Amino acid sequence: MSRPSVPPVDLSSLPYRPCAGIMLVNADNKVFVARRIDTDQDAWQMPQGGIDSGENPRDAARRELLEEIGTNAADLLAETDDWLYYDLPADLVGKVWKGRYRGQMQKWFLMRFTGQDSDITLETEHPEFNAWQWVPLADVPRLIVPFKRDIYQQICDRFGPLLSA
Q: Fewer CB atoms inside 10 A, N or C side of the chain?
């Protein structure tokens, strides 16, 4: 007996997931990136995560730092005025976020890390990363999975001038 075919998902009918992202920089203006544990790719990213219902993006950014890297010791320096969007690759739609979203709409925050490296821990309640490092701003986009690379370049282009001022 053959299995019924599953109709393709109409991406235009799916919404974008609201998300807050953080470009966390240290005193040397190096950027925090961490390697994801849920993929076999060498996939690095900056901290980011969904905005809960009723939560404002700035509060979500602080919560995500604490949930993902064990600290939110950071001062807010800037934020994007608009939302940045990316679409998931077709092979991930239906697998990520239980198939409810086509991609993410992200509000990004530039924050200065005020703690010590020893304050950072990836051993959180729901670990997402297995390694982390501080990297030069120019290196960030090349470390990111291809489908997020464009949005990361936009973030670097927007926040980079603030780091050299």
A: N
The H or E element containing residue 57 is: helix 57-69
Q: What is the pLDDT of residue 10?
A: 60
Over residues 57-89, the pLDDT tens digits come to 999 999 999 999 999 999 999 999 999 999 888
Rounded to a whole number of angstroms, the distance between the first and last alpha carbons of the chain is 67
pTM tops 0.85 = yes
Dmax (CA) for the chain in angstroms is 67
Q: Please, are residues 109 and 46 in contact by the beta-carbon 8 Å criterion?
A: no
For tokens 């290196």, the residue is 139
Domains, in order of start, for the chain: 13-164 (3.90.79.10)
Residue 2 confidence (pLDDT): 53
* Radius of gyration in angstroms for the set of CA atoms belonging to the chain, rounded to a whole number: 17
Cβ contact 79:108 at 8 Å: yes
51 backbone φψ class: left, alpha, beta (φ>0; ψ -120 to 50): beta
Q: Nearest Cα to 72, choosing from 120, 140, 125, 123?
A: 120
Spell out the SS3 assignment of 101-164. Answer: CCEEEEEEEEEEECCCHHHCCCCCCCCCEEEEEEECHHHHHHHECHHHHHHHHHHHHHHHHHHH
